[in-house]
Every structure is written in structure tokens, then in C-alpha cells.
Design a protein that fits this description.
2 domains, binds oxa(dethia)-CoA, Peroxisomal Thiolase, Chain A, domain 1, alpha/beta, four-stranded mixed β-sheet, 328 residues, five-stranded mixed β-sheet
């Protein structure tokens, strides 16, 4: 039994941080950020706003759009690398906030591929036949792990969340295929060294800025283009599809140049590629569901469309998912 997406929603914090603001914090320029990444601005949480708050806004919208009550939800999966706490899980906080009394849930750590990992996981629960309504949310409050004195990272990321409700379908539509990958040897190139059991927080570790995200951008860039393009090409091929058959390609939004290169390799024409990195930056697990909801709201996705999702991120983690859209 396939899973289909019956509702989409997203939420980004109100505050916008422009490239010009970043020019005042680090040695960078609006021109460099736009031309090297495609980013013009990003949204940043208010003081005291965290991943569960963004996720709760998404969850509330999902319930309203689908016209169901929180008690109808069986399972909540939250993909994030910036949970409010190590424990309790962000899923437990959202469950409490929305009053999903009949749900259990968990957080899933897949970095920029977290939403795709979550979608695959959620769809398998639906396929089991034991679950009717699964909420999958991708959220990251990247500003909580950004060093705003490091120009290599602070210009790239933003905060945001998006999500979906998954339900069973009797048809062959919905989530029809997935390829998910991981290669731990890439972990060193994009990581947060401190704060976990390997390096618990100490005054020294905090002073050494070990709790911030660190990236070897050049290295990640190379793997990202290859990783995203390889799985996207493979999933098209094994479903006897070409880029022409894709109504919309929704790639992870880390860098416009990575997106363009992946789309070109899959022969997907630029007007069928969703780009919103200019407005949101890289929201990690948030990028794909934010893009998906914008596309649904703008009428860019219709029933019957074949939609390709692709991601690449820390771990390394990467993957692609193919959806034959059927909303109800
Ligand atoms: O979502 C998770 C996966 N992450 C990614 O996919 C990110 C992948 N990597 C990238 O997107 C790109 O590598 C970056 C956007 C991070 C960097 O772009 P790049 O074209 O690879 O630049 P670079 O690192 O090769 O740096 C080029 C120059 C360097 O100066 P020199 O050595 O040529 O004098 C950097 O120091 O640009 C400099 N630079 C900056 N200049 C102004 C690096 N960051 C900045 C900055 N503003 N923010």
C-alpha cells in the first residue's frame, strides 16, 4: 500500500536577515553571497523561539488544511539536527502542543536529507497497514548552531520548517520510489564537534566554539552535486522516466549552483526546478517541505504530476524520492 501526501504546510520565523546585515557582522558582501550561493535573505528565529515552536505552527496548519483533529494523528516524525533539547524529543513537544493524544513519535537525525529520511520512514509505517495518519515535519533552527563570526557558514543557513500528512492510498500513486544513501566517511566535512557525548559542553569547549556547525564547503560542494545527480538519474531510469516526465523537481536548497548542476545532469529544464534559496537560505531539513508547500499553494503541483525530490547533507546523507501526486 502506497502512502500519499494529503496536506502540506510550512512556517518560517518573522524576522528576515538580509545579506546587508551580514556584511556588518563578517567580511562578506551581498554580491559574493548572491553569486556564490543564490541567497539574498534568510529568516531567523526570535529570542526564545525554537524548533518545536516552528514545528507546532506547521502541525497546526496541517491539521487545519486536512480538516482533521490532532487526535487523528497516529505518529509524529520530526526530522531535525537542531532539536529544542537532547531529550525530550521535539516530537514529544509537538505532540503536547497540538494535543495529539493518540500519537507516538520520534526525532530523526538526517541533516539536510532528514525530511526525505522521514518521508520514507513515515511511508513505510503507512504501508504496514497499521497507521492511517502520519505527520512528517522537517525543521531546523540553524541560527542556534551558527557562529556569526564565521563567514564560511553564517551566510549560508536560515531557520524554517515544513511538513506533510501521509495517508494510505488504494491506487499506485503517492510515494512510488526512493533511493536513500549514507556515507559516514563524509562526516568530518560538515559537523558540529561539541555538545554530544564525545565532547560534552565545558567552558573550554564553548570558548573554542566547538558547538557551532563547521563546513569544508568546497569538499561538500563536490560530493553534493555528484550525490544528488546520481540518485536522481538512477531513480528516473529505473522508473523508465526522463527529465521531461518530471513536472517539478524539488531539490534541497544549499546552493543554487548545486541545484542547477543536478538539474542539468538529469535534463530537467530550469522552469521545472523549484528555487527558493534566495528567500530562505539553507534551512537544512526544512528546505524540501517548505518548497513543496509553496509549490502546492502556487498551483505548481497538480494531481497526476510526477514530482522528484532530492537532497544532500551532513553525514554524508543523500537521496531522492519520486512521487506521483494524489492529494485526496
Ligand atoms: O546543506 C548541506 C550541504 N552543504 C552544501 O551543499 C554546501 C556546499 N558548498 C557550497 O555551497 C560552497 O562551497 C560555499 C558557498 C560554501 C562556498 O563557495 P565556493 O565557491 O566553494 O567558495 P570557496 O570556499 O572556494 O571560497 C572562495 C573564496 C575564498 O577566498 P580565497 O581563498 O579565494 O581568497 C573564501 O575565503 O571566497 C572566500 N569566501 C568568502 N568571501 C566572502 C568564503 N566565504 C565567503 C563569504 N564572503 N561569506
Amino acid at each position: 500500500m502506497n502512502a500519499k501526501i494529503t496536506a502540506t504546510a510550512h512556517y518560517v520565523p518573522e524576522r528576515i536577515m538580509t545579506n546587508l546585515e551580514l556584511e556588518k557582522l563578517v567580511d562578506t558582501s551581498d554580491e559574493w553571497i548572491r553569486s556564490r550561493t543564490g541567497i539574498s535573505q534568510r529568516h531567523i528565529v526570535a529570542e526564545n523561539e525554537a524548533s518545536s515552536d516552528l514545528s507546532t505552527r506547521v502541525a497546526e496548519q496541517l491539521l487545519a488544511k486536512r480538516g482533521i483533529s490532532a487526535e487523528d494523528i497516529d505518529l509524529i516524525i520530526i526530522a531535525t539536527v537542531t532539536p529544542d533539547h537532547f531529550t525530550p524529543s521535539t516530537a514529544a513537544l509537538v505532540q503536547l502542543n497540538i494535543g495529539a493524544k493518540n500519537a507516538w513519535g520520534f526525532d530523526l537525525s538526517g541533516a539536510c536529507s532528514g525530511f526525505l529520511y522521514g518521508l520514507e520512514t513515515g511511508s513505510k509505517f503507512i504501508s504496514s497497514g497499521h497507521y492511517q495518519k502520519v505527520m512528517v515535519i522537517g525543521v531546523d533552527t540553524m541560527s542556534s548552531i551558527l557562529d556569526f563570526t564565521d563567514r564560511n557558514t553564517c551566510v549560508l543557513f536560515g531557520d524554517g520548517a515544513g511538513g506533510v500528512i501521509l495517508e494510505p492510498t488504494d491506487s499506485d500513486n503517492g510515494i512510488i520510489d526512493s533511493i536513500l544513501k549514507m556515507d559516514g566517511s563524509g562526516g568530518q566535512y560538515l559537523h558540529v564537534p561539541g555538545g554530544g557525548s564525545r565532547m560534552p559542553a565545558t567552558i573550554e569547549s564553548v570558548e573554542a566554539k566547538q558547538h557551532y556547525i563547521m563546513q569544508d564547503g568546497k569538499k561538500v560542494f563536490k560530493f553534493a552535486v555528484k550525490g544528488m545527480a546520481d540518485v536522481s538519474e538512477r531513480i528516473l531510469k529505473r522508473n523508465n522516466l526522463t527529465g521531461d516526465d518530471i513536472a517539478l523537481f524539488i531539490p534541497h536548497q544549499a546552493n543554487k549552483r548545486i541545484i542547477d548542476a543536478s538539474a542539468e545532469r538529469c535534463k530537467i529544464s530550469p522552469e521545472k526546478v523549484l528555487i527558493n534559496i534566495d528567500r530562505f537560505g539553507n534551512t537544512t531539513a526544512g528546505t524540501i517541505p517548505i518548497g513543496m508547500n509553496e509549490a502546492v499553494e502556487n498551483g505548481q503541483i497538480k494531481d497526476g504530476d510526477t514530482i522528484l525530490l532530492a537532497s544532500f547533507g551532513a553525514g554524508f546523507t543523500w537521496g531522492s524520492i519520486l512521487i506521483k501526486w494524489e492529494s485526496n
